[in-house]
């Protein structure tokens, strides 16, 4: 059937009309409600862009340390700060503020929110110390520290997991054996 052009419906019709195939039970139903046809792509994949994307790029230029924040947190309902910045700039532009002022206002709001979070955590630590308790973990850790905390269990695992230690020992023995073969072969 590779020589025939068209979709499943037109190919099946051609085969049934040519008596090459018996009429399937689904053909009449499919003729009454044919499947949707999608336009063919010319091989070029269009890049998806959102209206706030240029402002997100400008945000990352101003705040390169925030690039480490997870762009898409699947388990979170809150968008990342860069997207909030872009959306806020668009919102201000719709209200009639020019682009430069809108970016300055959104940047000021971002910095104020970040400062407020740090201040709240500092106050939380002070309260815990006054009560004689251990300070709670930082609810707003940096993205780098979050990543390191996730990786910590795997890093520690390589030192204490007997299976991994066995693999490492085997690799060391293989490396030593290759070195000995290199010395005997006269390459050194």
TrEMBL record:
InterPro entries: mS23_dom. Its main location: mitochondrion. Keywords: Mitochondrion, Ribonucleoprotein, Ribosomal protein. CDD domains: At1g26750. It is found in: Mitochondrion. PANTHER family: EXPRESSED PROTEIN. This is Small ribosomal subunit protein mS23. It comes from Tripterygium wilfordii (Thunder God vine).
């Amino acid at each position: 059937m590779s020589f025939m052009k068209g979709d499943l419906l037109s190919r099946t019709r051609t085969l049934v009309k040519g008596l090459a195939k018996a009429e399937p039970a689904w053909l009449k139903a499919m003729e009454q409600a044919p499947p949707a046809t999608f336009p063919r792509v010319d091989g070029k994949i269009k890049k998806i862009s959102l209206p706030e994307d240029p402002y997100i790029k400008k945000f990352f230029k101003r705040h390169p340390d925030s690039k480490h924040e997870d762009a898409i947190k699947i388990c979170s309902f809150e968008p990342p700060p860069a997207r909030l910045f872009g959306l806020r700039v668009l919102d201000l532009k719709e209200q009639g503020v020019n682009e430069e002022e809108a970016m300055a206002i959104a940047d000021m709001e971002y910095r104020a929110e970040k400062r407020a979070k740090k201040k709240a955590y500092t106050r939380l630590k002070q309260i815990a110390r006054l009560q004689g308790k251990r300070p709670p973990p930082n609810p707003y850790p940096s993205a780098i520290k979050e990543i390191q905390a996730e990786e910590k269990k795997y890093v520690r695992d390589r030192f204490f997991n007997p299976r991994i230690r066995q693999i490492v020992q085997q690799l060391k023995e293989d490396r030593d054996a290759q070195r000995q073969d290199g010395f005997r072969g006269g390459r050194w």
